[in-house]
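Query protein
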Amino acid sequence: MTAWRTLHRRSLAASSVLSVAIATPVAAVLFRVLPRDWPAPALVATIAGAAALVVAGALVFDLVRLRTTAWRLTDDRLELRSGIVFREHRSVPRDRIRSVDLTADPVRRALGLAVVRIGTGEHASGERTTLTLDPLSRHAAEELRGALLHEIGEPHSGDPHGDRPLATLDWSWLRLAPLTVWTVAGGALVAGVAYKPLNALGVDLFEPGVVADLWHWVTTRPWLAVPLLLAANALVGLAGALVVFATTWGGYRLEREPGRLKLSKGLLTTRSLTIQERRLRGVELAEPLLLRLGGGARVKAVTTGLREKEENEADDAGTLTPPMPRELAAQVAGRIIRAGHPVLRPHPAAARTRRLRAAAVWTVLLTAAVAVAIRSVSWPVSWSWLWAVPAFVLPLALWLAADAYRGLGHALGERHLVTRSGSIVRRTVALDREGVVGWTVSESYLQRRLGLITVSATTAAGDGHYDLLDVGTEEGLELAARAVPDLLGPFLTRRVGRPGP
């Protein structure tokens, strides 16, 4: 039996440095609230003492955490004991491990440490899906990853590109970085993030007098104020998008190793994610509207065991590429799953009718809401121009409806079921047919009148299900029956794909 091992003790040095990030705002708040008539030595001593207590508290907590945490790797299990007040012993079979994620912020990287997160593939509500070892030495982390994901395979079978990486960073992709929500709402996001720390320092971004003056300026000079505010918001968003792209994707490299995919990225905080190929159930080509209009896309993995996105991360754990040209993204996706690009079949014209009707209904509802707002609220200026909103929204909604219809498509490849849908975010998913464990066929009242159904392929990976929206009834059932023979057939009450009598 393998002996229990502890976390690396250099974690104490990392904690002492990182705790300065907490001690600094504490010192700033004390400097603001302490009486000004105190002698300078007393003021400095009080602030320094408070900062020292914060650092000491962090060190004590980390020391106790290190002394109460241990892990070991046996021939068939990975075990972790942790907890200060409530003790916990987690034990995971090695064959349940889906991915290993190594991250290191600048402090840990300088100290030769890394945080190891092991994805277990658990999906039960309220349960943690990862085991975290924080930290190990970089060498021990790499050894553990190799031991957990070691398997015999043929890494380049069917891949004509040999040892070449699947993708590496091209800084020309930086032009696609602004085509995200950052540019649209950058100023608002920055103001929201900065509000709490600035408020603690006595700076109120939303002080009543300031808000009233700003509102008066906007309402009295809307044709000047609104464009200026939008331009300022866009400039802040543009700068933020470029910084986020550079720090997140600097050093990006996606490569295939024996039996697994390895993703490396990060300019300041480095991250290395390894996914077992036998756990991969497909890929997703994601095209948010702004990125799609700019000719870009990104690739995501459809797999099990990846941890959830954390607050300080810009992308989901399953995102395999940064924004890149769509043609290149499609090539990378094809190389990941070793499959070509099948021609997608369009959906019936009735699907377009359904979307156009929905656009008209939403425009009517918006018009009614605007009418109620104008008649029920006393505005400081004439807001009759709000009637222009429905006139602007209707053609936009109709365009989005038509675009959503154009985005519908599906195909059945040799190994994959391919489905595409969406307008605001268009998603093309190539799902391994062997990973489909069930089908759900749904039909609303409106769909039934139009001869449409929605067929959902259920899988244990990714979102859990992937939908063929508004496909013809006979075509959808036939496709499901052909994709996974004998899974749906026993439940069909009609002869799918055969001519009638």
Notes: The longest strand covers residues 280-288. The longest helix spans residues 40-67. Confidence is low (pLDDT under 50) at residues 151-158, 495-501.
